[in-house]
Design a protein that fits this description.
Blueprint lengths: L2 H4 L4 H9 L20 H14 L3 E8 L2 E9 L14 E2 L4 H14 L9 H4 L8 H6 L2 H5 L7 H5 L11 H7 L18 H15 L3 H10 L11 H6 L5 E5 L2 E5 L9 H4 L2 E2 L1 H12 L3 E2 L2 E2 L3 H7 L4 E5 L2 E6 L4 E5 L2 E9 L4 E7 L4 E7 L7 H16 L12 H7 L2 H22 L7 H27 L3 H7 L1 H34 L1
Antiparallel strand pairs: 1-2, 1-14, 3-6, 4-5, 7-8, 9-10, 10-11, 11-12, 12-13, 13-14
Length: 507
């Protein structure tokens, strides 16, 4: 059995679930308004979803045109603390990709990067397992997630906590052992590796380290004073406390290790107010106040539908450069979500209405990504003048997470039921099954669920195990404990049944 197909191709499945909703449905004049009556419906929706999903804290920002129109914090930024402020830093996860794409495009406009140049022009050492494919992958392929690099190649580094300056390059060199999932340029496949490579290309082309480049050329020009590339600096400035979901219940984790090698793909830290300024620039042709951070043509290229996202033969939207492109009704939506073990994020732009929304969450889980993305899409829909769409199956995910607890309970029930049955067989010979019925109903059939559960152990021994322990701690625990028990119980139960039947027969 191919476990990779049997269980989940990781982030690809999350993207598919999140995108299913499509089928159903620095200026002195900058104004900041909090709790405006016109946003009461959005506030009420956010509060309702927070209660339903057990989200400890949310930071919301809405922009229209060149103004911040509404900012509000909900819940708690940290246990027993106050609500997040507009300046409270959160990890933003894969919203980072849009900053990396913007940095690349700035260097393109400066004549330092050619979008259609091979990656090996900037990183001569770059290799994948296929030498010919290695030479074909371009900067544009990385930006559009069409390089062919598999999702797995970007998940493995998320459990690599090397904090040395060379971590990103060391992990990128390890791609030399990976076979591509698709021919270069032929199909979309989401992988953090694409954007980690872009971070290295930015360093080579600019002559600056990635953290220095984005700070000097994006954060400072946009007056983003509470945006960080350093976890330690963010903690000094009251970083929100993240939470991991265990069976849909959030638990605070104040000192989660950070994979610095994946900084360009998903480890930036920012605040609602700062991202609001960033959204203003994106919605206004790259301009914020007197600063032109990128040309209008450059912004349009970032948001252009470059590649179709397909699953099971149907389109589920498009991808640009660090952005998903979709529709809310007849309105274009440019969006991205962010997923970390303990933080989530959503940013949505409505370019035709010149509006944008940001949601920062201080709790997350691998399987909560589509749920939080749908949450964000609901706020985007309200902002666009529509009603939030109800996406089948996505709303069930928290119940599926809770339902994992049934597995050990069912195992305990099976042990009790089996022991009672064996006792009855010993006492009353007429109740003993005989011949093929004994083997079929009482030995072979019960083996099936036990062996299927035992197969999850293979996941915890594979290359994704580090990622799974961080992003799916509850499932990982179930897989290790219940999978191990199922394997042992399969043999023990079979032996007990056969021994009991043989003893009864001989007596």
């Amino acid at each position: 059995m191919n476990l990779r197909k049997f269980l989940f191709p990781s982030l690809l499945v999350c993207a598919v679930l999140a995108l299913l909703r499509r089928a159903f449905t620095r200026s002195a004049s900058e104004k900041q308004v909090t709790n405006s009556a016109s946003y009461d419906a959005i506030d009420a929706y956010v509060e309702g979803e927070m209660r339903r999903l057990n989200i400890p804290g949310v930071s919301l920002a809405i922009v229209e045109g060149d103004k911040i129109m509404h900012m509000r914090g909900f819940g708690q930024a940290r246990p027993d603390g106050e609500a997040p402020t507009p300046q409270t830093p959160f990890f933003i996860g894969s919203l980072t990709k849009s900053f990396t794409a913007l940095a690349v495009m700035k260097l393109v406009e400066a004549g330092k990067i050619d979008l259609d140049a091979p990656v090996q022009r900037y990183l001569p050492w770059f290799r994948v397992a296929d030498p010919q494919a290695s030479a074909q992958i371009t900067v544009r392929h990385l930006l559009n997630q069409t390089s062919g690099l598999p999702t797995l190649s970007g998940e493995i580094p998320l459990a690599d906590f090397d904090n040395s300056p060379a971590a990103t390059e060391r992990q990128a060199r390890a791609l030399s052992t990976f076979m591509l999932s698709h021919p270069v340029g032929s199909a979309f496949e989401y992988s953090n590796s694409n954007y980690n490579l872009l971070g290295l290309i930015i360093e080579v082309a600019s002559g600056e380290l990635y953290p220095d480049y984005v700070r000097e050329h994006i954060f400072i020009p946009l007056d983003m004073r509470h945006t960080y590339t350093s976890h330690a600096m963010a903690k000094q400035n009251f970083l929100a406390v993240g939470h991991q979901y265990w069976f849909a219940v959030p638990f605070a984790v104040a000192n989660m290790p950070i994979p610095l090698g994946s900084l360009p793909s998903g480890q930036l830290i920012s605040s609602a107010e700062d991202i609001a300024r960033y959204m203003i620039a994106l919605l206004n042709g790259g301009r914020y106040g007197d600063v032109q951070v990128l040309s209008r043509a450059g912004i349009d290229e970032l948001h252009r539908e470059a590649v179709d996202i397909r699953a099971y033969g149907r389109s589920l939207g498009q991808y640009g450069m660090g952005w998903f492109v979709d529709q809310i009704g007849r309105t274009k939506l440019v969006w991205h979500s962010g997923t970390l073990p303990h933080f989530g994020a959503y940013m949505g732009l409505l370019p035709e209405q010149n509006k944008g929304v940001l949601l920062l969450f201080n709790a997350c889980h691998h399987w909560m990504n589509p749920v939080l993305s749908t949450f964000g899409a609901g706020v985007s829909a309200l902002l666009a003048g529509n009603q939030p769409a109800k996406v089948p199956f996505v709303g069930m995910i928290p119940w599926v997470l809770r339902g994992q607890l049934l597995i050990p309970l069912l195992q305990i029930a099976d042990v009790i039921a089996t022991l009672r049955q064996l006792r009855r067989w010993r006492k009353v010979s007429e109740r003993r099954p005989r011949g093929g019925r004994a083997w079929g109903l009482h030995i072979l059939l019960p083996l099936i669920p036990n062996l299927v559960a035992a197969l999850t152990l293979r996941l915890m021994l594979g290359k994704r195990r580090g990622y799974m322990r961080l992003y799916m701690p509850d499932f990982s625990w179930i897989a290790m404990v219940c999978g191990s028990f199922s394997l042992l119980w399969s043999f023990l139960r079979t032996g007990l049944v056969i021994r009991t039947l043989r003893k009864a027969s001989s007596s």
